[in-house]
Amino acid sequence: MTQVHSKAGKITVFGAGPAFGLPEGSPFVTKTLVQLQMAGLPYRLDLARPDDSPKGQIPFIQDAEDIVADSTFIRGHIEARYEVDLDAGLSPAERAQAWAIERMVENQLGWTAAWFRFFDEANFQKGPAHWFDHAPEAIREQLKQQLLDQVAINLRAVGVGRHAPEEIVELGARSLWSLSVTLGDKPFLMGDRPTSVDAIAFAVLAQFLTPVFDHPLRRRAEGFCNLVAYVERMMTRYFPDHPWRVAEPAPTPDARVFEAA
Ligand SMILES: N[C@@H](CCC(=O)N[C@@H](CS)C(=O)NCC(=O)O)C(=O)O
Questions:
Q1: Strand 3-4 relative to strand 66-69: parallel, antiparallel, unpaired?
Q2: What's the whole-model pTM score?
Q3: Beta carbons of 70 and 32 less than 8 angstroms apart
Q4: What is the pLDDT of residues 134-183, one digit of tens each?
Q5: Which of 220, 236, 240 has the alpha carbon at shortest distance from 176?
Q6: How far, in Å, is the centroid of ligand 1 from the Cα of 189?
Q7: Which residues line ligand 1 (CB under 6 A)?
Q8: What are the structural domains of the chain?
């Protein structure tokens, strides 16, 4: 499946494609798609597996002869090559604050949502388990277990996976509160117009709020009305055709694991 955002685009973004009620299943790919739009650069989204990337993760992009992996380095590439500043208008102190928020969202908050997606059995079955729908039946369960084992290692490495579920909720809720207070009644995190940090904050918050998965952190996120409105605002602005939270969408079976192998 290929989604062509603009026929004129020369930048190809490699990502997961729509999934889980979201326009793009990976929050880091979503970040890149939003930042490309912020920069006014057309793109084309193609499906890829993390193994296809030089860094073993999505997103990565191809821009003419350059392949750039990792959303933050992709942003750096965009800003340098196309002479855009996604944080234009921000003071050095505001840029520093935005970076700190981004690190919290990427390196802590996102992992708390990931725990409930992979280690809540019902959520796993509705979501990531479908990545193996096209695998040979004889090895399907083994592959799911391998995935869970790898995610568990990652979650332990970042610390989140060492805690009880209720403690993970408290950690995640604290960061949701932090985002909610930072946003306040502004339209975007750093003020009246979107800047780079909005791309990842939106992407990760949408992962919490998608109706496909049910978990205590989704309900905590739903309690922050300004965050709910913020995600709707960003979704309308950057993915106007996406039917956001209109109904419980069917999970998107993702065949790329075996079709691309
Ligand atoms: N620091 C990376 C993180 C990217 C990332 O975690 N991507 C996930 C998908 S959301 C991935 O490819 N995971 C596969 C893996 O880590 O093996 C970035 O900003 O691009």
A1: unpaired
A2: 0.92
A3: no
A4: 999 999 999 999 999 999 999 999 999 999 999 999 999 999 999 999 99
A5: 220
A6: 23
A7: 26-28, 50, 56-59, 70-72
A8: 11-82 (3.40.30.10), 92-259 (1.20.1050.10)
